Amino acid sequence: MKLTTITQLTLDGVTQGNGGPTSEDRERGFERGGWARGAGDDTTRDHIATTFQRADAFLFGRRTYEILLDFWGTIEDLKRHPIGMALNSKPKYVASRTLTEPEWANTAVLGEDLFAAVTELKASGDGELQVHGSSRLIQWLLEKDLVDEMELIIVPVVLGQGARLFADSGRDVAMNLVDSRSDSKGVMIQTYRPAGRPDYATF
């Protein structure tokens, strides 16, 4: 399966607290959660819903998994939304060393050897394995060369605080832009494919 990451982030790269009132919003003094609520027009909302429906399976870090469970897995009206229908009906895999009894149906917790587990999933057949949110997991996947495609949904706001998608110190990765669009509210959707290490100029 192709492993695709889909991430909402700000212009300064923050991913923390995009949705609203969760405990994550206030972690380490963060007070600016909910910045993605209401962002984007109908074309972007339709695109996000279609993206979830397109997935054959999902891979999450534990925190993102639990946030999505509380929202899409427990509220009856949201279960009938196209995103909720996709999340509730398709296989979900969680990268966690502490989760032992997942509450959400169609969930499997990956074992201690995460690299082997994700590699096996990618080799298991055609289709798309999607990672939503889960910025720490994405950083690890990039380090291990396991990401095939990255979609960035960039909301036109600068937060000035919060956890970011890319670590302050990590692996360098060249990216090829394969698609780019913007909506009427200034939300940009950019799709990249990793292309090895960057070339650095010498003088």
Summarize the structure.
With 203 residues, this protein is α/β, with parallel strands linked by helices. The protein has a single domain (2-194), classed as Dihydrofolate Reductase, subunit A. It is built from 6 helices and 8 strands, in the order E-H-E-H-H-H-E-E-H-E-H-E-E-E.
List keywords for this structure.
6 helices; alpha/beta; 24% strand; 203 residues; single chain; 8 strands; 8-stranded mixed beta sheet; globular; Dihydrofolate Reductase, subunit A
Kindly describe this structure.
The protein is α/β, with parallel strands linked by helices and 203 residues long. The protein has a single domain (2-194), classed as Dihydrofolate Reductase, subunit A. It has six helices and eight strands, in the order E-H-E-H-H-H-E-E-H-E-H-E-E-E. An eight-stranded mixed β-sheet has the order 4-3-2-5-1-6-8-7, with helices on both faces. Helix 1 packs parallel to helix 4. The protein is globular.
- What do we call the CATH homologous superfamily? Dihydrofolate Reductase, subunit A
Radius of gyration: 17 Å
Q: Output the structural class.
A: alpha/beta
Q: How many angstroms separate the termini?
A: 42 Å
Number of spatially distinct domains: 1
Mind telling me the CATH class?
Alpha Beta
Task: State the order of secondary-structure elements, H for helix, E for strand.
Answer: EHEHHHEEHEHEEE
Name the strands of the widest sheet in spatial order: 4-3-2-5-1-6-8-7
Q: What global shape is seen?
A: globular
Residue share in helix:
25-40%
> Under the CATH scheme, which architecture would be assigned?
3-Layer(aba) Sandwich
Please state roughly what percent of the residues sit in beta strands, choosing from under 5%, 5-15%, 15-25%, 25-35%, 35-45% or over 45%. 15-25%
Query: Helix count?
Result: 6
CATH topology: Dihydrofolate Reductase, subunit A
Main sheet: strands, sense, barrel: 8 strands, mixed
By DSSP, the count of extended strands is: 8
